[in-house]
Structure formats: C-alpha cells, structure tokens
Amino acid sequence: MKNQKMNILINAYPKIIKNLILIIISIYNNQKLKNILKSKLIFMKKINFIKHLSLSKINIILEIIKYIKKISIINLINPF
C-alpha cells in the first residue's frame, strides 16, 4: 500500500483542547503516511504558536503528534 493516507477524527470536551487537536488534525488529515513521518511543523515556531500556550498544552500537542507518527509507522509496516 504505497500511498496510504491517514484519516483522523476527534472528540474532546474542553474547547481549547479540541481546537488545538483540530489544528494538528488539519495538518495531518489525508496526508500520505510517509509525509506525516517527514513533517517537522516548523511553521509553529515561525508564527510563535507555542509561545502562547502553557506547558501542559504544548505537551498535549507533542503527544498527539508522537501518537500520529507512531500510528503512521505501524500502518506502513503492517498495512491493513
């Protein structure tokens, strides 16, 4: 499955968390798995996105990105 893509859905209670997750999803949704693994999200630094967030929110974003990349690796190794 050379051109597998990831489709992501979200449901979160606090609106700030939901909106942060939606930003990440909008970046990764329908992207090829290989592109997800290559992505670096440099634009977040350029627009000072992280500067406006608490440490806990930054950690949430980083964990979500790690999880999405982990799932991408799993699906590349073992396509379903």
Brief rundown of the structure:
With 80 residues, the chain is mainly α. The chain has helices at 15-28, 33-38, 42-46, 55-77.
How would you summarize the topology of this molecule?
Layout: H1 15-28, H2 33-38, H3 42-46, H4 55-77
Helix pairs in contact: 1-4
Describe the model:
There is one protein chain. The chain is mainly α. The chain has one domain (15-77). It has 4 helices and no strands. Helix 1 runs parallel beside helix 4. The protein starts with 14 loop residues before the first helix and ends with a helix.
What is the count of DSSP helices, taking H or I runs of 4+ residues?
4
**Oligomeric state of the chains in view:** single chain
- The end-to-end distance, rounded to whole angstroms, is 9 Å
Number of domains: 1
| Average pLDDT taken over every residue | 81
* Biggest sheet record: none
Range of strand content:
under 5%
Number of DSSP E strands: 0
Structural class: mainly alpha
Shape: globular
- Give the fraction of residues assigned to helices: 55-70%
| Rg calc | 13 Å
Q: Unreliable segments (pLDDT under 50, ≥5 consecutive)?
A: none
> What is the N-to-C order of secondary-structure elements (H for helix, E for strand)?
HHHH
List keywords for this structure.
single chain; 80 residues; mainly alpha; 4 helices; 60% helix; 0% strand
